[in-house]
# Entry
Amino acid sequence: MISFDRLDLNLLRVFDAVMEERSVVRASQRLHLSQSALSHALARLRDSIGEELFVRTGKGLAPTDYAMAISGPLRAALQGMRGALASASSPFQPASARRTFVIAASDYVCAILLPYFQRQLRQEAPLVDLVIKPSTRANLAEQIDLRRIDLAIGMFGGLPERLRSQALMEQDEVLVAWRGHPAAGRDITLDDLATYPLAAVSAGGEEDGAVGGFIRERGLSRQSDMYDRGALELALGKAGLPVRLQILLPHFLAIPALIEHGDMLAIVPRPLAQLFARTHALLIKELPYPVAPRQMEILWHGENDLDPAHCWLRAQWFEAVQQMRQAA
# Structure
């Protein structure tokens, strides 16, 4: 029988970190402990509980069945304690807060939303700083787990229990073309897509572990293709036309320079196409095949659910979306 009154609750934080990291090295870095101190804490917890918690494998530490059974309730209890402390402390005061938030986002998100977000910061939180990191980085989930990234913005196909997401905005995709394009005066056809050079954006490929347009790591699936590859291939395949992307880019902002004064077409999200049409000599053309709208989401670690600063941060991105829509 476990004596809860004698149990060091700090050991539960160690257990929770190791459950997420599956590595003594990463867990010790996260908790700012030495590896030997963390190993000693795990041994103390094992002795207190009287059960084995982890076994070593070639890929790190694997939790036992007992560890899997207790991990969910223990994490919920830890989150509840964090939330209670956060709500009882002084509320986050944006006007006087000195803080740096780290956001993972693509150049597309930065182009369409960051200007509005930055204006809000200047008005409401002039001492708050932002660091933007690429959302395409291979270790995105790990960086969120280690709290090195506060919030990620992108399209996600699968979510582990420890992470949270919320739909930020819906988007579809269109074509952009130079105003002097040979097909500028009419609708684009499937034949045009097979005739004129075509560009699109993919933030990862098969060599980066992408399967079906998604990259999966540490239980998180994130979209790597920034266009509906399946819809394009299906439409051209049914018409008996070849599919050829002359240029597949890792980012969006090179597209205007590529297609101005030429006959190249590019597939981009509609909000970005609207920005390009305002700032460059480009036209927006509808795709000649159906594409379902997709959700852009914000993603954060569940431990930050009730943190007042993080709640404020998430709300600012939703306000930026509203400002963008009003300006469109």
